[in-house]
Design goal:
Elements lengths: L3 H16 L3 H13 L1 H27 L4 H26 L6 H5 L4 H9 L2 H15 L5 H28 L6 H23 L2
Length: about 200
């Protein structure tokens, strides 16, 4: 078991990585605004499961000394960034109207999993947190398991909070909300892309 101060540091990092604005948080808020917090939880759960899978695969690969993890990190960051910028453009063009068809098409578990899998913030968070908190530990396997449990719980709660916050947006303000979220999404992707490529 990692020391208590390491566990607290892991929890703090997980909270900062999960709760701060990023592509998945923004899409979670949009899903909550458009379809309600309860329906957004499927997206939230898919995004959390995808991050945990990414985290465990990266962690296992890094602990095994596999170099392919770092080799694919940069191309995946670029691909994910382009996809998320396309989503920001689509959001910017959205007129904010909520139709009955739109309500039936709420993003679900697999949408959350795909978006998170392409999220540059998730890739950066996984690689940087593993190298900072898990690699220095004596018992790395236990450290990875503890960190994965912490990250999973904190990630799900943070994304659910964003979805709940989005659900509080009135339908009359949807167009303005869409444009603000599109701008924030694009800026967050550009910022993450510039960090990962330097």
């Amino acid at each position: 078991m990692p020391p208590l101060q390491t566990v607290l540091a892991m929890a703090g990092f997980a909270l900062a990585a999960s709760a701060t604005p990023g592509p998945v948080n923004i899409i979670g808020a949009m899903t909550g605004a458009r379809h309600g917090a309860r329906r957004a939880l499927r997206f939230v759960t898919g995004a959390t499961a995808s991050f945990l899978a990414l985290f465990v695969v990266f962690g296992t690969g890094i602990l095994a000394g596999t170099g392919w993890i770092l080799a694919i990190a940069r191309p995946m960051t670029v691909i994910g960034s382009l996809y998320l910028l396309w989503m920001a453009w689509s959001l910017l063009r959205d007129d904010g109207r909520i139709s009955g068809d739109g309500i039936r098409q709420a993003p679900g578990f697999w949408s959350g999993a795909v978006v998170q899998g392409l999220n540059p913030k998730a890739w950066l968070a996984a690689v940087s947190s593993l190298s900072t908190f898990v690699l220095p530990l004596e018992d790395r396997a236990t450290g990875l398991a503890v960190f994965a449990l912490l990250f999973g719980a904190i990630c799900w709660l943070s994304l659910a909070a964003w979805a709940w916050g989005g659900a509080r947006i009135g339908h009359g303000q949807m167009r303005a909300f869409n444009r603000i979220m599109a701008l924030v999404l694009a800026l967050s992707v550009i910022w993450m892309l510039s960090r990962s490529l330097t």
